Amino acid sequence: MKWGKYTPYLLLIPTFLVIGIFIYWPAINSFSLSMYKVAPFGGRRIFVGIQNYIDLFKSDVYWNAITVTLIYLVVTVFSVVVLGYLIAQLLDNKVAGIKVYRTLIFVPYAISFAIGGALWVFMLNPVAGHINYFLSQITGKSINWLNQAPFALISVSVASIWKMLPFSIIFYLAGLQSISESIIDSSIIDGANSWQRMWRIKFPILSPITFYLIIMNITHSMFQSFGIIDIMTRGGPVGTTTTLIYRLYLDAFYFQKTGEAAAQSVVLFIIMSFITFFYFRFGEKKVHYQ
Amino acid sequence: MKISTRQKTNYFLIEVGLILVSLFMFLPFILAISMSFMSPTEVFSYPPKFFPSSINFKNYSEALKLIPLGRMLLNSMIVAVFTTIGKLVTGTLAAFAFSSFRFKGKNILFSTLFITLFLPAETVMILPLFMIMSKLGWVNTYWALIIPFTASATNTFLFRQHFMSIPTTLEDAAKIDGATPMQYFRKILIPLSGPMIAGASIINFVYAWNMYLWPLIVTMDDKMKTAQIGVKMLISAESTNNWGVIMAGTLLVAIPTLIIFFLLQDLFVKSLVGSGLKE
User: What distances in angstroms separate CA A84 from CA A153, A167, A179, A282, one per listed residue?
Assistant: First the structure.
C-alpha cells in the first residue's frame, strides 16, 4: 500500500540537515583545512599539501601525546572492564542491602567527567585533602599528586576509572541477570566452582558485552577524558597528561595552529573510523543497535 | 534447607566486598557534601575533619556570588532541555521514516546516519565546527550550544527499534481507516512509546547537562557559559583554595543529574542498557 510517497523524505529532513551541517560538513572542512597553513593574525592561507601531517609526526610533542593517550587508554579501559566485571558479580547476589549498594555504586555515572575531576582534585589536595593525610599517617610521606610527573597521570587515571566504572558495571550486571538459571544450575551439577563459573561459563557468554564495553570505553577515554584532564591537571606537568584530544584543544584554541590542529582532527577521525570498522566487522553479529 | 557454613562465609565476603566498593564509589560525594558546609578554618584543620561542626549554607551563597553560577545553571537547564526536545523530535520522525516506509535510497541514508555513531562531532571536528559557528555568528549564543546536538543516530536507532516492535496490524488498520501518516504517528506511535521517550529524555538530558569541551570553547562571555564551565572557573577563581566554596559550587552543578538518577534509577539504567544492545 502506498502511503505518502514523499513523506519519508520529509521525515528525514530535520535529522539530515543537522548531521549534514554539523557533522559531515565540518568533517570535510577538517580535511581541506589540514592541507593549509594559516599565517597568524593575517588569516592568509597557504596550501602546503601533507606538510602539516609530516610536521605532526616529526614533532616530539605529538608523539608524547600519543604515548600518554596509549598508556591512559590501556590502563583505564582494562581496569574498567575487569573491575566492572568483578563488581557486577558482587552485585548479582541476593544479599541484604543490595539495592542500596547498587545505587551508591552507580552514582558516579550521573555526574560529568569535569565534576568527577573536581571531586578528586579536592581529595588529592596536598593540604586539605584526605588522601595525603592517610598516606602520611601510614608511610610518613606525602605526595604532590597533580604536579609531579608520574603521579599526575596516575591520579587522572584513577579518577577516570572511578568515573567510568559504573557504565561497565551496569552493562555487565544486566548481562549477568539475563543468563538463564538453567545454564548456571547445570554447571553447578557438573561440579564447577564459583570461580570457574565466573570465567569459564559466564565470561564467554558475556563476550559481546565485553566487546561493546571495550569500544565504548575507548571512545570515553579518548574524548570525554578532556573534562577530567582540564580540571585536574590541564595536561601538565610538562605534558605528562596531555592526551591527543587535549593536544588538539591546545593547538586549535590556545596556540592557534589551525592547519596542524585540523590535521590532528583527521588523525583522530581515522582512528575512530578504524575502531568503527573493527566494531562492525567483529562485533556487529551479536551486539547491535537495530 | 540448611545453610552451610561455606555459604555463610560466602555471603559475608560478598557483603564486605560490596561495602568496600560502595565506599570507594560514594566516599568522594560524602566528603564533598560535608566539606561544602565547613568554614575555611575547618577545611584546613589537621587532622582533616570528616564532618562539619555545624550546617550553614554560607559556602553555597558564596559560590553563587563568586561567579554568575545561577545564570550558568539556568543556561545549562535551557541547553539540556532544548537539546533533549530537539533529539526527541528529530529522532522519532526519522525513526518513523525508517521503520514504516520503503523508499529509494533508504539503505544509503541509513548508513550515512550510522557512520555518525562513532564520530563525536563536539570533539573530533571541534575546530571546523567552531569556524562554522563563527560564520553563522552563533558564538556566545544558545544556538551554538543547542542546534548542533539536536539530532543523533543513537536516538533514531533507539526509536526505530521500538517502532518496529509495534504490531503492523495497527498500521494497516490506520491505513484502512484513511489515516494520514502523521495522524498514525501522533495518535498511535507516540502514545505507545511513553516509556521509551521517558528513558531517552533522561539519557539525553544528562548527556547535554554534562557536556564540557564544546561549551568551554563556544562561550566566552561569563553570562553564556554553562554550569560545567562554572566548576572550572570556581577552581581557578578561588585563589585561596577555599574548598568549601568550590565543593558547594560543584555540588550545585551535580544536583540536577543526581536527582534524576536517584528518582528514576531503574528507568535510567534500563534505557541506558536498552540503547546499547539488544538481547
Answer: 21, 8, 17, 22
Q: Tell me, what's the pLDDT at A13?
A: 96
Q: Which among A22, A96, A114 has the least Cβ separation from residue B232?
A: A114
The pTM is what? Answer: 0.92
Inter-chain CB proximity B125 and A170 less than 8 Å: no
Model confidence over A237-271: pLDDT tens digits? 999 999 999 999 999 999 988 899 999 999 998 88
Is A289 an interface residue toward B (CB < 8 Å)?
A: yes
Residue-wise pLDDT for A10-52, tens only, equals 999 999 999 999 999 998 888 999 999 877 665 678 888 899 9
Task: Give residue-wise pLDDT tens across range B197-242.
Answer: 999 999 999 999 999 999 999 999 999 999 999 999 999 886 667 8
Quick check: B269 and A106 CB within 8 A?
A: yes
pLDDT at B118 over 70: no
Lowest-confidence region among B95-104, B183-192, B266-275: B266-275
CB atoms A21 and B132 under 8 Å: yes
Chain A residue whose CA is closest to B12: A95
> Is A223 in Cβ contact with B123 (below 8 Å)?
yes
Angle at B190 between CA B187 and CA B191, to 5 degrees: 70
Min Cα distance A55 → chain B (Å) is: 19
- pLDDT the model gives residue A290: 33
